[in-house]
Amino acid sequence: MKFEKLGKYIITRELGKGGSSVVYLCHDPYHQRDVALKLYSIDQDLSEEQQRIRKKLFFNEAHLAGMLQHPNILPIFDAGEENGKCYLVMEYVRGAQPLSVFCQPQNLLPVRKVVEVVFKCAKALDYAHRKGVVHRDIKPSNILMTADGDVRIVDFGIADHPVAEHTPMAGLVGSPSYMAPEQVREERVTNLTDIYALGVLMYELLTGKRPFYGENLSRLVHQILNARPLPVHKLRSDVPEGLEQIVEKAMHRDPAQRYRSALELSVALTGAFNDLGRMAREVAEQERFNMVRRLSFFQEFSYPEIWEVLNASKWETHDKDERIVVEGEMDDNFFIIVSGEAVVTKGGKVLGKLREGDCFGEMGYMSRSKRTATVTSSSGVTVMRVNATLIEQASVPCQLRFHRVFLRTLIERLARTSEMVAEDEGRG
Question: Domains in the chain, start-ordered, CATH in brackets?
Answer without folding.
Answer: 5-91 (3.30.200.20), 97-277 (1.10.510.10), 300-427 (2.60.120.10)
